[in-house]
Amino acid sequence: MIERLASGFEVAYDRAGSGVPLLLIHGWPHSRALWAGQTSGLATQALCIAPDLRGFGESAVNGPWSIERFADDLDALLEALSIPNAVVCGLSMGGYVALSLLRRHPERVRGLILTSTRATADSPEAREKRARLIEFIEQHGMKALANRQLATMVGTTTLESRPDVRTSLLEMMAAAPPAGVIGALRAMADRADSSDLLSTITVPTLVVGGAEDTFIPSDELRAMATRIPRSRFELLAGSGHVCAYECPGAFNHVVGEFLRDV
After folding, report:
1. Ranges of each domain in the chain
2. Which CATH architecture has domain 2-261?
3. Is the dihedral of CA 175, 176, 182, 186 positive or negative?
4. How many helices (H) and strands (E) does the chain have?
């Protein structure tokens, strides 16, 4: 589906199911296709809304990009869909957006699921790495980037024994619009530190990660969870950074339990 927001920006999204609204925010450099296992597997428990962020998938490739602008887009989407609030689930970059949405539009967030993400801002070294990735994309294109990023996106189990997941994820990343991917890299490099927000979170919160994630280790995720009052922490075996995509059944199980409590 395509929704034209009050600003004129057109956002593509999938909508499935009924129940508690569940806003699913994809990571970088993905699209709403990252959540295919959730829009089907959680449809009996939640009203799943999975948008393409600005510059990704089928949404308009309109800049400038920032994490705050992504959050404002999602606030406007919920307004356009007459959804007053939702459980907000963000994976990786989507987690940065979820925290920004909580800061900027707290009334929209009735629950929070932080997946394979962190609250801290980029270090100087991380910003430099993003700058090198921008140069790589400009020189070699998205297919080359997808091949380069695959090993950091999935766990060893997926690399060794899930060729269908590897192939579909490669295709998803390779299809991402270069302008949006580069814009999002700059947005992540410039994002604010949200560490101060963690101790103030009052909505039910679930922190989820993959046991084989080499980008955001489980110890870092667990430490973030300990700073959020009354949060729950779940680690999924046999999965890496995109654990929801690699192991949708296990991910849906823990999210389903969380939604029942919410």
Report:
1. 2-261
2. 3-Layer(aba) Sandwich (3.40)
3. negative
4. 12, 8
What pLDDT score was predicted for residue 193? Answer: 97
Instruction: Report pLDDT digits (tens) over 159-217.
Output: 999 999 999 999 999 999 999 999 999 999 999 999 999 999 999 999 999 999 999 99
% residues pLDDT > 90 (the chain):
97
Q: What whole-number distance in Å separates Cα of residue 13 and Cα of residue 5?
A: 12
The whole-angstrom separation of Cα 233 and Cα 202 is 16
Give DSSP secondary structure letters for 155-218. Answer: -HHHHHH-HHHHHHHHHHHHTS-HHHHHHHHHHHHTPPP-HHHHTT--S-EEEEEETT-SSS-H
Q: Specify the pLDDT at position 262.
A: 83
Residue found by looking up tokens 């814009």 in the block = 183
Residue 238: left (phi > 0), alpha (psi -120 to 50), or beta?
left
Q: Does residue 155 register a pLDDT over 90?
A: yes
